[in-house]
Amino acid sequence: MDTMLNVALPKGRLGEKVYAMFENAGFPCPSIKEVNRKLIFENEECGVRYFWVKPSDVAIYVERGAADIGVAGKDILLEYEPDIYELLDLDTGKCRMAVAAKKGFHDDISRVLRVATKFSNIARNFYLSKGRDIDIIHLNGSIEIAPILGLSDVIVDIVETGTTLKENNLEVIETIVPISARFISNKSSYKFKSEAIDRLVESLEKQLGE
Ligand code: PRP
Question: Are residues 188 and 170 in the same domain?
Fold first, then answer.
């Protein structure tokens, strides 16, 4: 069995911040700071191997055991419902999942609501819980354009600063759920590498309290 701890980090600013926390927790890997296009870095001495993956793919690596642990947004966990353990809220990468529409929008409940989103599962569950009939229009990005062009009535998307909505004359109608980054683990890795993983969780927890 591979005794190294395999860590999937989300490429980008969040991943860099999270790496610094892992480094503080006793899992440094100095080569990761070299500027190049490499995606895998390891420190054999500390028994850790990091790899940069697309943020929305972290949960797949962890669920299938290609990574033992990783960091993923709660939005991705709610959307794909991967079979993993969610061990810690890292209290960073904070934003919210919200319904937004053109300013002045009024919902006509006698009609099916057209919802454009990248997060079809989250949108479906949300409107199911309200008993509202919807038609989901699945898009892959630039969701804010949909209501402007009349492709949809509303969107379900991530709102961080609110700038994208504002600059497109849209506004939040309702918040669905607050989002933040979560520390996740593969289920069998958590059994076999529990010592290292627990040590990491404990240190991360401590760092959050500082
Ligand atoms: C996200 C989201 C919004 C924007 C919100 O997009 O889909 O478009 O960020 O941020 P704000 O409230 O601070 O303006 P992202 O950059 O992830 O790109 P994409 O959805 O177009 O892929």
Answer: no
What's the first-to-final CA gap in the chain, in angstroms?
Answer: 36
- Which range marks the domain in which residue 126 is found? 95-178
This prediction has a pTM of 0.94
Q: Are 124 and 130 in contact (CB under 8 A)?
A: no
Is the domain of 200 the same as that of 104? no
Same structural domain, 38 and 48 = yes
Reported as a pLDDT band with limits 50, 70 and 90, residue 123 is very high
CATH number at residue 166: 3.40.190.10
Concatenated DSSP letters of 149-201: TTS-SEEEEEESSSHHHHHTTEEEEEEEEEE-EEEEE-HHHHHHTHHHHHHHH
CA distances from 17 to 6, 46, 150 (A): 18, 19, 39
Tell me how many domains the chain contains. Answer: 2
Which pair of structure tokens corresponds to residue 194?
């529990």
Same-domain status, 85 and 113: no
Going by alpha carbons, the residue nearest to atom 5 of ligand 1 is: 159
Q: How far is the CA of 135 from the centre of ligand 1 (A)?
A: 22
- The rounded distance, in Å, linking the Cα atoms of 125 and 17 is 32
Atom of ligand 1 nearest to the CA of 141: 21
| pLDDT tens digits for range 142-166 | 999 999 999 999 999 999 999 999 9
71 lines ligand 1 (CB under 6 A): no
Token output for 206:
């401590």
